[in-house]
């Protein structure tokens, strides 16, 4: 029988991390944890409660009073905030354009990382985000840094949005993605950065299946060790 391992998948915005991570977790029967959804959930709650998102203190006390739950489902993952299904609303433009500001605060990150480590305290886990290999699970057996050109990422997001009935011009998506990458890479606390021992996978010219096969192959090698 294969043993459960921890797989950390980091990378810039819209690189396909969650699509891939979810599929890998299904194939290996591991737990999938989308850490971006957790920062999005806090951002959403802060915005609807008129919390000052430049205040680490206000956000931290809000987070302490917030129950964020991730539940696997056939169509991916359902995100509950205080028991309410908020899966779609956390992907809104408003949340997307404010989440990098929320996630840059030191104490917000400490609390989130604590929560994420507790969730990962299971046999097999696939976790995706920005600081998983560097800060959340530095002892993960497999670390992947997934990238793709900004043009390709904007195109993929555009196609995804169109399926959901949202029509944002590609140029606008490109600018938003580039700005989020800049904010996430330049923040002081655990910025988006490749872990030294992470394997880079540039998915620009790869299909989803090819990326999944490559990561599963790497995971299988680690599970045999
Ligand atoms: O992965 P996703 O695009 O949903 O993440 C939304 C935002 O949450 C990122 O742009 C980043 O600001 C933040 N994030 C983070 N650390 C993580 C995961 C996400 O700072 N581990």
The largest pleated sheet is described as: 5 strands, parallel
In angstroms, what separates the terminal alpha carbons?
12 Å
Each distinct ligand = cytidine-5'-monophosphate
Beta-strand content estimate = 15-25%
In CATH, the architecture is 3-Layer(aba) Sandwich
Compressed to H and E, one letter per element, the order equals: EHEHHEEEHHEHEHHEH
CATH level 1 name = Alpha Beta
* Uncertain runs: none
Mean pLDDT reading: 95
Tell me the helix content.
Answer: 40-55%
Q: Superfamily at the CATH H level?
A: P-loop containing nucleotide triphosphate hydrolases
In terms of quaternary structure, what is this?
A: single chain
Structural class label: alpha/beta
Q: What is the C-alpha radius of gyration, as a whole number of Å?
A: 17 Å
Number of domains: 1
Query: In what order do the strands lie side by side in the largest sheet?
Result: 2-6-1-7-8
Number of strands: 8
What would you call the shape? globular
Task: Give the secondary structure arrangement, pairings included.
Layout: E1 6-10, H1 17-28, E2 31-34, H2 35-48, H3 56-64, E3 68-73, E4 76-81, E5 84-85, H4 93-103, H5 106-119, E6 125-129, H6 132-136, E7 142-147, H7 150-163, H8 170-186, E8 199-202, H9 208-224
Parallel strand pairs: 1-6, 1-7, 2-6, 7-8
Antiparallel strand pairs: 3-4, 4-5
Helix pairs in contact: 1-9, 2-4, 3-5, 4-8, 7-8
Bound molecules: cytidine-5'-monophosphate (C5P).
Cytidine-5'-monophosphate binds at residues 13, 35-36, 39-40, 99-100, 103, 129-132, 180, 184.
Describe the 3D structure.
This protein is of the alpha/beta class and 225 residues long. The chain has one domain: P-loop containing nucleotide triphosphate hydrolases (Rossmann fold). It is 50% helix and 17% strand. The protein has nine helices and eight strands. The protein has helices spanning 17-28, 35-48, 56-64, 93-103, 106-119, 132-136, 150-163, 170-186, 208-224, and strands at residues 6-10, 31-34, 68-73, 76-81, 84-85, 125-129, 142-147, 199-202. A five-stranded parallel beta sheet has the order 2-6-1-7-8. A hairpin with a 2-residue loop joins strand 3 (68-73) and strand 4. Helix 3 runs parallel beside helix 5 (106-119) and helix 7 (150-163) packs across helix 8 (170-186). The longest helix is centred in the C-terminal third of the chain and has 17 residues, at 170-186. The radius of gyration is 17 Å and the shape is globular. The two termini are 12 Å apart. The model has no long low-confidence stretch (mean pLDDT 95). The structure holds cytidine-5'-monophosphate. Cytidine-5'-monophosphate binds next to helix 2, helix 4 and helix 8.
């Amino acid at each position: 029988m294969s043993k459960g391992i921890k797989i950390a998948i980091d990378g810039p915005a819209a690189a396909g991390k969650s699509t891939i991570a979810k599929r890998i977790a299904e194939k290996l029967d591991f737990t999938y944890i989308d850490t971006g959804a957790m920062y999005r959930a806090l951002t959403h709650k802060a915005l609807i409660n008129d919390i000052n998102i430049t205040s680490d203190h206000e956000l931290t006390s809000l987070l302490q009073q917030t129950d964020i739950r991730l539940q696997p489902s056939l169509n991916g993952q359902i995100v509950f905030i205080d028991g309410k299904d908020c899966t779609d609303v956390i992907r809104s433009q408003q949340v997307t354009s404010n989440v990098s500001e929320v996630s840059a605060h030191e104490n917000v990150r400490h609390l989130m990382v604590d929560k994420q480590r507790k969730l990962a305290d299971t046999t097999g886990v696939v976790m995706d985000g920005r600081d998983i290999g560097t800060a959340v699970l530095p002892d993960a057996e497999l670390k992947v840094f997934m990238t793709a050109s900004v043009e390709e990422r904007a195109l993929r997001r555009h196609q995804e949005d169109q399926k959901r009935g949202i029509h944002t011009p590609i140029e606008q998506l490109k600018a938003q993605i580039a700005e989020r990458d800049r904010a996430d890479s330049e923040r002081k606390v655990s910025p988006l950065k490749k872990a030294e021992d992470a394997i880079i996978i540039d998915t620009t010219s790869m299909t989803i299946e090819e990326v999944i096969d490559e990561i599963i192959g790497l995971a299988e090698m680690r599970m045999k060790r």
